[in-house]
Amino acid sequence: xxxxxxxxxxxxxxxxxxxxxxxxxxxxxxxxxxxxxxxxxxxxxxxxxxxxxxxxxxxxxxxxxxxxxxxxxxxxxxxxxxxxxxxxxxxxxxxxxxxxxxxxxxxxxxxxxxxxxxxxxxxxxxxxxxxxxxxxxxxxxxxxxxxxxxxxxxxxxxxxxxxxxxxxxxxxxxxxxxxxxxxxxxxxxxxxxxxxxxxxxxxxxxxxxxxxxxxxxxxxxxxxxxxxxxxxxxxxxxxxxx
Length: 242
Ligand code: ZN
Prior knowledge:
- The protein is α/β, with parallel strands linked by helices.
- Helices cover about 30% and strands about 25% of the residues.
- The protein has a single domain (about 1-235), classed as Purple Acid Phosphatase, chain A, domain 2 (4-Layer Sandwich).
- A six-stranded mixed sheet has the order 3-2-1-11-12-9. The protein has a six-stranded mixed sheet with strand order 4-5-6-10-7-8, with helices on one face.
């Protein structure tokens, strides 16, 4: 099966649509790794659009925060204000859908978790040390995570020995015999100094992974955020990809 692997849409409809256009005809199913809402101006629209497709979805920490399933005291002020705005904006239907999602699941050879297999809604896997520990917390050959908004591939070469690889965009790559933890990056709020929406294609039969990147009209999302008086730091960061 050919899968569109996406994460951290964060209510950014322009970015989500750009990814769907760019990947049209290349997949049969979506695997979404969580954080559908929070930060961006289109929570209901992004939820409806995702639900138009055959998909599997996880919930992330921002989804949990909006649903009051998570203590937000550690969120920064801007993230908190986005959570409050989102809480006031989502429809009962969006809320019920988000509430129905798990934060971790296993699909064949793949474990899917929003943040990490050890702590599915909270831990950030940004370095090989944290990745190495997390290999003990799933049983499948491969694990897909989001949450950091940074596309990266951690390959376990021996117990507690992990090599990180940065993406080679547009180059389909065979998954290795070694176990890997892979992050496709974020659609709606990339944080690797590249403003383009990040996503990946996965062929689960031939075990081939392809990182991809597509530019979208950032100003479209920014205008909607300004119209809702969202914090300017959240508005500005989209064009820098951080
Ligand atoms: Zn996120």
